[in-house]
């Protein structure tokens, strides 16, 4: 039995996976591992390219673009290792982090899952990564960027305090190592999620089985958005912080974990913000002696985004199983 089953989901990213696997074999020592690649109907030469370079890779075809949760669940079902690692295709190892994480799980049976600090391509720590549910929920609210509004949100959605500085509420699915026994009790990833948010929801269930640790002395590189063709087209603004798929998934998570009330509060918040963002921008235009209806692209984009949320409103409100893909 291998010590570790590494599961990588592929969607048209053979070059990224080649680099990722090269780093795994270069730096991982002291454990036995297997690598499973689950393909989301890439319809390219990914399999031949990757298995020619790494013939030991076990390859599985989903047959359609199933997203993150469903593809990883297939890999989990096929895994044979003592531990399971979800690893993004756009990651690189820079040291023996996998062995170090295995040793933590070996030494601390009360730990349900572990992860490592994410670095950017320039080897700097990736900023503003969420590790608590409160951080994620507070980011959804569009309030004036003031200390007063932040204090209000912190009071309404506080973060937990842990004795262990490594302990967190959830871990990124870009690098998440856990035990098959924990998955058996917590359940696998929720397959209603297409992409994003599934690791947050899973973290809630994993955390009921033991502590979740973000190991501050372990690191890996996350290039991020390797398979997302539209990432560079999304301009982040104060009112448009997330892509539509991200927000639909996160709204689904809020509904599942916090119930109808918390979900409806968010939806009403977004609907009520539509006239506010238009009126606010028009007032700024008038103050600057400009025509009130110019430069409203950001406001129209926000309105369009709310329309996307509302397409999923009924299903999300009723928490219906489905495939929440934008």
Automatic annotation (TrEMBL):
Residues 5-123 form the Glycosyltransferase 2-like domain. This is Glycosyltransferase family 2 protein. InterPro entries: Glyco_trans_2-like, Nucleotide-diphossugar_trans. Keywords: Membrane, Transferase, Transmembrane, Transmembrane helix. One of its GO terms (molecular function) is transferase activity. It comes from the Bacteria. The chain crosses the membrane at residues 260-280. It holds the Pfam family Glycos_transf_2. The keyword 4Fe-4S does not apply. It comes from Spirosoma telluris.
